[in-house]
Amino acid sequence: MRTFDLPAPATTEGLDLINRRPLVGGKRKFAWITEHFSQIVERKAPFWWWVAVLITGLIASLVPLTLAYQVSTGVGVWGLNNPVFWAWDITNFVFWIGIGHAGTLISAILFLTRQKWRTAVNRSAEAMTIFAVICAGIFPAFHVGRVWFAWWLFPIPNANVIWQNFKSPLLWDVFAVSTYFTVSLIFWYIGLVPDLATIRDRATSKIKKFLYGLFALGWRGSNRQWSHYEKAYLILAGISTPLVLSVHSVVSFDFATSVIPGWHTTIFPPYFVAGAIFGGFAMVLTLLIPCRWIFNLKDVVTDKHIDNMCKIVLLTGTIVGYAYLMELFIAIYSGNPFEQWVFLRNRVADPFIFGPLMNVPPAPYWWAYWAMMISNVIAPQFFWFKKIRKNLLLVLIIVMFPNVGMWYERFVIIATSIHRDFVTSSWGYFSPTWVDIGLFVGTIGLFTFLFLLFIKFLPMVTMFEVKAVMAEADPHYDPKKKTKKTGDPLVDNNPQLSGGAH
Amino acid sequence: MQTTTLPKLYGMGAEFQSAKDVYEAAQKIRDLGFIRWDVHSPFPIHGMDDAMGLKRSRVSLFSIIGGITGSLTALFLIFITSADYRHLVPDWFPVTLVPSYPLIVQGKPFFAFEPSFPIFFELTILLTAFGTVLGLLTLGVLPRLNHPVFNWDRFSRVTDDKFFIVIEATDPQFDEVKTRELLHELGGSQISLIRHDP
């Protein structure tokens, strides 16, 4: 087949107008996809992997250490005290849950909207979701104080004959987060089954064949199975979409249904959901760009993928910026002195510009508010420029801002609202203790540690879905037949561009 | 002379090189009226259900049953554990036997739909997901770790880049010679008999 040997077009830009550019670059074959991604799992782990696992594993060990200290000593070892009873713990909880949302968005919402580019990134994004929710769950579970009674959160008959208060948003949270974790895990696992079968069929050692075979459930790629599989996957995507929107809405209810100025806001559910997707996509890019370099994924995670994700970061970042400003405007416009106080005097008033302008003393947490504004509103605006979206190093640097900024957002919402509220005599200030810091750093270590284990033991790209979006996967694909003459020899002679599979 | 009896015949398989080839072959096999046969591929092929003449998957039935179970579970769970409905119980029934745990919180009603909605929603989603997985496992007959097709050495390529059609020996039209000719005609290669475990 002569046509396969033609060089790839030097630039495929502008071809979008004629035919879509292929999702898999470099004119790859099915076998290449299998080989390239299976061998990451099969070959010996490289040296850097062991170093990274060791370091992140040590950092992750801070989680059991700080928790053991906290449980044996008491919840007072965290910096929480009157009036700030929610601070880093709930900040970290909302931060991690939010990170997870991009994974579900990629796997479910982009699946329903037929965004086929998702296939290259959905597996790792879903893994990220699961690990982020694991990190998130630690905080509320231990925040209850006596963690050995945490099972009281679930409707299990107990000797006290007291049931849960189903009217409480905190209980809604228990249901939302546990459902979210379970459904994400199911979705991820179902997506893994055909690829586990690939690893099983290539396995050389007996123990690997057995283990991967066991989890592959005896998958044999039969079309009678595929038929049910596709239906099941569609339904799971269909229910995950409202689920992911509901989870962060419910998380926002923890605040919005209270009467604290700064929390009592109807804008919270959409604002939280947009923020979660924003922070989540920043984290996906943070993990994916290094993986793309290390594992040479550029034919599967193409520039187009990175470009699309940058655009999503830009869009959601702008929505988040709009929410910040709208929330501020409504606080001022409402005429409610307590709302105005929280926004202007607890957040906006910095010692340099706005504080002097308003002639008020600087807010104790002004630095947190402005760190949030700069990271989440200004930093993503650079993605308007294609040159910046094409420069992976710049992308990586820019997405670090939302990663940090989204943590600050939750801290600003939580701590600045409650540290100085209605009664001056009860004002206070929150400073984290080493236990707070150790636990948070530990969860970052745990998250990275789990992700490293994932890329070693499971195929990090959904091989069967990537194969299915290649031009050759189309049953009407014919390398010899041109579907339509475009007059451009680069397109007409390139089977992936003219083959007709879209 | 020693005669060995071969294990029972499961069917006959043929290998195809592309999605297009196997798709066209499947259409012809469907038109010839075969019943017990299957196409194996590394990924779901668009339109293959029609090419094989398969009906719509019924996994959705399991999902909806799961979803309804979830909604009802949430409704009963919240109602039984927080509503005060003892006045609805007829006088002759001993009221102490009625499970009811009304909890006074902030002067709110014991039971209302609005605050119950998030939990209705979440449990509906959760049990829909369980139902869907159950449907997939039941209808797809999974997990099944042992299957005669795995005895065919070519078959491990099914999860890589090759496509297969397997016609079972129990199909009324199966005939060792004619089926082999048919598969050959349709463009299949590596045509082999597949046997059960010895």
Concise structural overview:
With 502 residues, chain A is an all-alpha fold. Helix content of chain A is 65%, strand content 0%.
What would your notes on this structure say?
The complex is a heterodimer of chains A (502) and B (198). With 502 residues, chain A is an all-alpha fold. Chain A is 65% helix and 0% strand. Chain A has a single domain, classed as Formate dehydrogenase/DMSO reductase domain (Formate dehydrogenase/DMSO reductase fold). In chain A, α9 runs antiparallel to α10. Chain A is globular and about 75 Å long. Chain A starts with 29 loop residues before the first helix and ends with a helix. Chain B has a 4-stranded antiparallel β-sheet with strand order 2-3-1-4. By secondary structure, chain B is of the alpha+beta class. In chain B, α3 packs antiparallel against α4. Chain B is built from 5 helices and 4 strands; from the N terminus they run βαβαααβαβ. Chain B is elongated, with a radius of gyration of 28 Å. Classes of the chains: A mainly alpha (502), B alpha+beta (198). At the A-B interface, α1, α6, α8 and α17 of A face α1, β2, α2, α3 and α4 of B.
